[in-house]
Specification:
Largest sheet: 5 strands, parallel
CATH architecture of the largest domain: 3-Layer(aba) Sandwich
Structural class: alpha/beta
Number of helices: 12
Number of domains: 2
Oligomer: single chain
Order of helices and strands: EHEHEHEHEHEEHEHHHHHH
């Protein structure tokens, strides 16, 4: 398995890391890239992440047998529309979006006869910092990548998509788009929202800065993902809002239980709630396919 031309649409952390990983694995001959920012495109060339910078999405995908769409989920539809006419009918097109239902809907609305090229993907990887300058070829190693194939995809195409991610160190799983979005609303999107809200609640208080000065490892560990990229998470939470709102309802119910125990001075109930969570968390282990590091998961 070797590709003649990888077209990278979105020269940032995720796309750049994918390009570096394929290059290091010897899986691609030429890498071209497009980003809306000319400065970013040129930096990607200077850092030798891509071989050539292209001035448009269509120019980048022209002649490419592998295309990775690594733009915020809110920019997926316009990117699909821009590549439709230039995309080779036998090309493999994947994305790295953290939501799948909306991305698939965008593809269906715009790709037309090229829809079969698209195998939706979500690598569970990232960093607190964004940008092509932070890209690294090892980003996807020992991490899980979720594929949510379409009915239009051939078995061979799905196998190739899986082989690509496996070759750069990922553990590949398959899910439906609906199951994906429900799952990650619970284990990723809601926790990020809670971290953002907790930091905002702290700093909105008059004593917030003084409180923050006293914060220790507990606050550091809990709030780490609050340092994630704002535009990326704006798009993720907006795109998956129905599932996130459902998870918020579950969280409010659990929070109400703690609030009631505190108001009533019911220490037995309070201990039971804490013990319940402690037991679940103590029994949980990070599954194969997730690296044990400090990178946030997109």
């Amino acid at each position: 398995m070797k590709f003649e031309r990888l077209a990278l649409i979105g020269c940032g952390l995720m796309g750049g890391s994918f390009a570096l990983a394929l290059r290091e694995a010897g899986l691609v001959q030429t890498i071209v890239g497009f980003s809306a920012s000319e400065k970013t495109r040129q930096l990607a060339v200077e850092l030798q992440v891509i071989d050539h910078a292209c001035s448009s999405v269509a120019d980048a995908v022209q002649g490419a047998d592998l295309v990775l769409l690594a733009v915020p989920v809110g920019a997926m539809q316009s990117s699909f529309a821009a590549m439709r006419q230039a995309l080779h009918p036998n090309a493999l097109l994947m994305d790295v979006g953290s939501t799948k239902g909306d991305v698939i809907a965008a593809a269906i609305a715009t790709l037309g006869e090229r829809l079969s090229c698209f195998v939706p993907a979500h690598p569970i990887a990232g960093k607190e910092v964004a940008g092509i300058e932070h890209a690294e070829g090892s980003l996807y190693q020992a991490r899980r990548t979720i594929l949510t194939p379409l009915p239009q995809n051939s078995i061979g195409q799905i196998k190739t998509a899986s082989a690509v991610w496996t070759a750069i160190g990922s553990h590949v799983s398959q899910m439906t788009a609906q199951a994906h979005d429900a799952t990650f609303a619970a284990v990723s999107h809601l926790p990020h929202l809670l971290a953002f809200a907790a930091v905002n609640a702290l700093t909105a208080q008059p004593q917030g800065p003084a409180f923050l000065e006293m914060a220790g490892p507990g606050f550091r560990d809990f709030s780490r993902i609050a340092a994630s990229d704002a535009s990326v998470w704006r798009d993720i939470l907006s795109a998956n809002h129905a599932e996130v709102l459902a998870q918020l309802a579950h969280f409010r119910s659990a929070l109400d239980q703690f609030e009631n125990a505190l108001k009533q001075g019911d220490t037995a109930a309070l201990q039971q709630l804490i013990q319940q969570a402690s037991d679940v968390r103590s029994a949980w282990t990070l599954q194969a396919g997730h690296a044990c590091n400090q990178a946030p998961e997109n």
